[in-house]
From TrEMBL:
Record-linked InterPro entries: C56_PfpI-like, Class_I_gatase-like, DJ-1/PfpI
NCBIfam families in the cross-refs: PfpI
Protein family membership: Belongs to the peptidase C56 family.
Record's protein name: Protease I
Keyword vocabulary terms for this entry: Hydrolase, Protease
Residue ranges occupied by any DJ-1/PfpI domain in the UniProt entry: 6-167
Acetylation in keyword set: no
Any GO molecular function: peptidase activity
Gene3D superfamilies listed in its UniProt record: 3.40.50.880
One GO process term, biological-process aspect: proteolysis
Organism: Paenibacillus typhae
Length: 174
C-alpha cells in the first residue's frame, strides 16, 4: 500500500460534518496510513452534525507536526470552534512551514484563515465562506478540488472522491 508508514492527524470537535471527517479518514487508511483523531480533550467523544461519533485519541496539545506526514480538517460547524485554539493554529502553521499535506473541505477553510496561511494560495471551499477566504488573501476557485502545493481543498461532500484521491496523492508525494 502506497501510504504504509505514513501518519495523519484528523481534527475533531462537536458538529463536524460526518462525511467530511470519516470519508477522508477511511480513504487514507485504505491506502495504508495511520490516522489519529485529535480534539481538545483526549478520550472525549465528539458528535457530528448528523450524530456520528468520533473519539479523540489525542489532545491537540499533545501533538507535533514533526511526528506526522499530513493533517485533515473536516468541515461542518466544528471549524468555527477549532480555529479558536492556539495549539491547532500552531499545528497547521507547522504543517504549512514543513510543506506537509493539509487537507481542508467546506468550512474547514476557517481554520486555515485563522492560521494565516492562505495569502496568495489558490483554494476552494463552500461558497458560503468564499469572501472569508478571499479576504484572507486566497485565490478562490469554484472547482471540486484545488491543489496548490501541499494544500488540498474541496467544496462539499459530493467532492469527497476526488478530494480523497488528491490528498492521498499528495501524501504519497505524487
Amino acid at each position: 500500500m502506497r501510504l504504509s508508514g505514513k501518519k495523519v492527524i484528523a481534527l475533531v470537535d462537536d458538529e463536524f460534518e460526518d462525511l467530511e471527517l470519516w470519508y477522508p479518514v477511511y480513504r487514507v487508511r485504505e491506502e495504508g496510513a495511520e490516522v489519529h483523531l485529535a480534539g481538545l480533550e483526549k478520550g472525549k467523544t465528539y458528535t457530528g452534525k448528523y450524530g456520528v461519533p468520533a473519539t479523540a485519541e489525542y489532545s491537540w496539545d499533545d501533538l507535533s507536526a514533526a511526528d506526522y506526514d499530513g493533517i485533515l480538517v473536516p468541515g461542518g460547524w466544528a471549524p468555527d470552534k477549532i480555529r479558536r485554539y492556539g495549539a491547532v493554529l500552531k499545528l497547521v502553521q507547522d504543517f504549512n512551514t514543513a510543506k506537509k499535506p493539509i487537507g481542508q473541505i467546506c468550512h474547514a477553510g476557517w481554520v486555515l484563515i485563522s492560521a494565516k496561511i492562505l495569502d496568495g494560495v489558490t483554494v476552494t471551499s463552500t461558497p458560503g465562506i468564499r469572501d472569508d477566504m478571499e479576504n484572507a488573501g486566497a485565490i478562490w476557485k469554484d472547482e471540486a478540488v484545488v491543489t496548490d502545493g501541499h494544500i488540498i481543498s474541496a467544496r462539499r461532500p459530493p467532492d469527497l472522491p476526488p478530494y480523497g484521491k488528491a490528498f492521498c496523492d499528495a501524501l504519497a508525494g505524487e
